[in-house]
């Protein structure tokens, strides 16, 4: 029995010593993971358990048979070894608690890394246009961005735009969020060469910080957020404040924003710098910066089934030499700045107990200074639709009417043309997807139908009929500039019929992260265009793919 017990103890002792040595080496190695250390510690515990069982067996044998002094010594040695192993195990456990994951493999496993979301998007759009069009370039190298002067019946072009965005969104803690978005916006071939940049002063600027801001959330433990930095701002249907998302570059605002958000209301105010010209204007008299200040109060439950928004916007362009008033011919350089106060309201929702009917109403009034004239203008937009949810393809039929005031007398000291401010006019095809009109001096009668043949496919057809509010005022493009400069003798005002437009839009979600958008538009010139420019119709088509990851 003595020899059998001895062999058993020697085997157990050897296993235990091996576990201790291996465990000690593993905890001292930088390359070991916590998972490996845990496995070795468990093996060490198993060895101690086996030795304890052997001791209990020896105790039981001692009660039924006499044991020799050598056996007693063996048992005592086993007890000492078990005690030593327990101390080793205690030391190993303490080492396990002290070692952190970032001590072993850097900070990639840190808690902060888990709070950072990375993403990106690549959007490529090919376009073709014949007739009137504005090239939506990422820079000034291709031209055609300020008007349609010189366009002829056979004028056409095709181009491919590529927009790439990468972003990081980090919730640092419960009170701090940081968002950074980089963007590269280019037109294929605009560099003029496949090596380097053809126009270093322009082309190198196509890569930029699109957004970069931080949020201080739950300020003072209230539903209050302060956002500071470069950011996109969108209000409602983008009619007066939008991110110009259709553009290859997009619109962002540099400034600060304060937001209060609860289940019942949303309130916000912001102050942004649109143009920073330094201490002195070009005439040396004063600052010529452009700033915008705005506030919004939205009621989420005040109107059943609808959101009610009240808005105030202050556009302050202190450049008296080159502002929108001089650009539209209502002022000459030096007449004065443009300061417009805009008060508006918007309601968007569905009819209670009849959710098949959706509607949106929005209206704005403006006053202030427009050069040396007084700004007095207003605008209205109304949209209603009915969705047949029980029919195949769930068709929605809609009607919309948009109006923006125009000016009938350039010399009466009142400027009555509505200022479209900072919109995304392409959004939802507000005034036609071809982007040849803005919310200025216009009537737009729109009918549309949308069907959803499958859960991936959406098809929409729109028809627009455009009139000018005032024939003497002119035709304003989507970017707010006149289609043709105002002649000294004024426009031919025999007719207010401007144009008709038909849009076909097809959207298909190929896969979860891959979307395809295609469209075709036809813009037919009517009497005002024929009398003041030429009998020119426009065709425009595009194919866009968006990959998000």
From TrEMBL:
Domain of life: Bacteria
Keywords of this entry: Coiled coil
SUPFAM superfamilies xref list: Porins
Protein name: Alginate export domain-containing protein
Recorded coiled-coil stretches: 34-95
Alginate export domain: residues covered: 149-531
Database matches in Gene3D superfamilies: 2.40.160.100
